[in-house]
Amino acid sequence: MANVLSTERQAAVIGALAEGSGIRQIERMTGVHRDTIMRLGVRVGEGCAELMDAKMRNLSCRYLQFDELWGFIGKKERHVQLGDDQSLGDVWTFCAIDAETKLVPSFAVGKRDWGTANTFVADVASRVKNRVQISSDALREYVGAVERAFGTDVDFAQIVKSYVHEDSANAERKYSAPEFVIEEVRAVCGHPNLSLASTSYVERLNGTTRLHMRRLTRLTYAFSKKRRNFKAAVALHFAYYNFVKRHSTLRMTPAMAAGIERDFWTVNDLVKAAA
After folding, report:
1. Helix (H) and strand (E) counts for the chain?
2. What is the C-alpha to C-alpha distance for residues 157 and 193, in angstroms, rounded to an integer?
3. Cα(199)–Cα(137) distance, rounded to whole angstroms?
C-alpha cells in the first residue's frame, strides 16, 4: 500500500509522474509496484486539487488567458458505442493562466460544452478580486459563461484563428499542424486592450502540459482508463507547475510570482501538503 512507502520513495514516485514518466517506467526505476504507483498518484492528485482550491483565493491577476486541451479516456469519441460508460471518449481540460505571473489559478475537466465552460469560468471568477482582462479562443460557450460569471465587470476578447487543412494522402502530413492563415481579435464585452489580447501563453502551457503529463502524450498507450485517475493526474500536474517547477523567465515558481508562497517547494513539500 502507498501509505507504507517512505516519504522519500513517495516523493520519487510523484516527482517522476509530474515530470512525464509512465507508470510502468516508474515501476522499473523505483521497484514500486504499478498498482501502488497508481493509488499514490490518485491520492496525491486529489489532495493537490484540494490544495489548489484552498490556495487560489483573492488573486490579483490582471490578464488571464483561457484555452482547452484535448485528450480521451478509455477510447476516442468515434469508438464510443451506445451503452458505454458516459465518462469514456473525448475529454477536455479547460485551463486559465495569468499572463504576468504564469500562475494557473483554475482548471476544469469535462466535455467541450456549455456545462464545463460555465463551471470553469465561474470558478475563475470566484478566485479573482479585481477586474480582469480575459483572452480566449473562439469557443462560443465562453461568451455566455463569462457574462454569467463576471457580469459587466470584465474586459473580454476572443482570438479567432483560421487554418488551412490540407487533404493529403501523404503520411507525414497526417500528423503535421495545419497551416495558419489569419488571426482576428474581437472585443466581446467591456473595453479590452486588444494589443494585449493573446492566447500565446496558454497555448505554450498546453505544450508544457502534454510534455509533463504522460496521459496526454500523443501516439502512446498511456491514456487514462478512468475519469477519476485523469482528473487526479491533471491536478497533480498543475500543482507541481504552480508550486514546484521554476519558470525559466521568472526564475521562481508561479506561486511565488503571484505572492501565494514565499519560498520554493520541493516534491516532498508538495506530497506533505497534499496528504
Report:
1. 10, 6
2. 9
3. 7
Which structural domain, as residue segments, surrounds residue 214?
2-273
What does each C-alpha distance from 196 to 72, 103, 131, 185, 193 come to in angstroms? 33, 17, 15, 10, 6
Helix, strand or coil, per DSSP, at residue 181: strand
Which residues of the chain carry a pLDDT beneath 70?
Answer: 1-3, 165-181
Contacts of 9 (CB under 8 A, 6+ apart): 30, 32
**How far is it, in rounded angstroms, from Cα 140 to Cα 156?**
13
Cell numbers that stand for 32 in this block: 514500486
CA distance 93 to 213: 12
For residue 192, give the CATH number of its domain. Answer: 3.30.420.10
Count of C-beta atoms within a 10 Å radius of residue 153: 13
Q: Is pTM beyond 0.70 here?
A: yes
**Phi and psi at residue 42, to the nearest 5°:** -70, -45
- Give alpha helix (H) positions in the chain: 7-18, 23-30, 34-55, 114-127, 141-150, 171-174, 200-212, 227-243, 254-257, 267-273
H helices within 137-196, ranges in order?
141-150, 171-174
Total count of domains within the chain: 1
Burial of 81 (0-12, 13-18, 19+ CB in 10 A): exposed
Contact 21, 29 (CB under 8 A): yes
| 70 DSSP β-pair partners | 92
Q: Are 79 and 101 in contact (CB under 8 A)?
A: no
- Give 19-46 pLDDT, tens digit per residue: 999 999 999 999 999 999 999 999 999 9
Nearest to 206 by CA among 255, 121, 137: 137
* pLDDT at 39 (0 to 100): 95
pLDDT at 221: 81
